[in-house]
Amino acid sequence: MKTKLTLLSVLACALFLASCSDAETEKRLANLERRVNQLENGGVVRNTVTPTSTPSASSIETNVSAKAAFKWDETLYNFGTIKQGEVVNYTFKFTNVGTEDLRIQSTSASCGCTVPQHTKEAVPPGGTGEIVVRFDSKGKNGQQNPVITVVANTNPAQTRLSLRGFVQVNAAPAP
């Protein structure tokens, strides 16, 4: 069982690293994550937000059993079409709707093109925090779907945030 979980985790990480611009890979990764969650919970599926979903702030469920809980303003930001080389900065904002301090342990991105920075201090119940994300389109082309994974003392422990958009290569000047 542990070997299967390790194998699925390694496979999921490998797919994550290759998923900056492949929507089909994103879907496969989401399916693998659901399977890993099933194995971790003895067959019980946890309620998670995947990169392919686009919930509104009002439709995001808060787990009442969690002592600390996120309520996100948004979990998906569509930056539209940009020119190759442009940098997109976006701030994902959240409120702790739990009963204990919310502590973010880590934030990571699915590729090196995206750098997240999170609130370092504990966020008290009712308090707000943010994840600032910087996406650099240098060397990128076409549809982009970087995913940011947030690990915190919440249930589930991991939350996924997504950026989406299209990077357009500048056309060469006509001779």
Please identify the structural class as seen in this structure.
Answer: alpha+beta
Helices and strands, in N-to-C order? Answer: HHEEEEEEEEE
Q: Quick check: average pLDDT?
A: 77
Total domain modules: 1
Task: Give an account of the 3D structure.
This protein is of the alpha+beta class and 175 residues long. It has one domain: Sandwich (Immunoglobulin-like). It is 19% helix and 35% strand. Strands 2, 4, 7, 8 and 9 form a 5-stranded mixed β-sheet that branches. Strand 8 (147-152) and strand 9 (158-168) form a beta hairpin. Helix 1 packs antiparallel against helix 2 (23-40).
Key traits:
Immunoglobulin-like, four-stranded antiparallel sheet, five-stranded mixed sheet, 2 helices, 175 residues, alpha+beta, 9 strands
Give the secondary structure arrangement, pairings included:
Layout: H1 2-17, H2 23-40, E1 70-72, E2 76-83, E3 87-96, E4 104-109, E5 114-118, E6 128-136, E7 142-144, E8 147-152, E9 158-168
Parallel strand pairs: 2-9
Antiparallel strand pairs: 1-3, 3-6, 4-8, 5-6, 7-9, 8-9
What's this model, at a glance?
By secondary structure, the protein is α+β, with helices and mostly antiparallel strands.
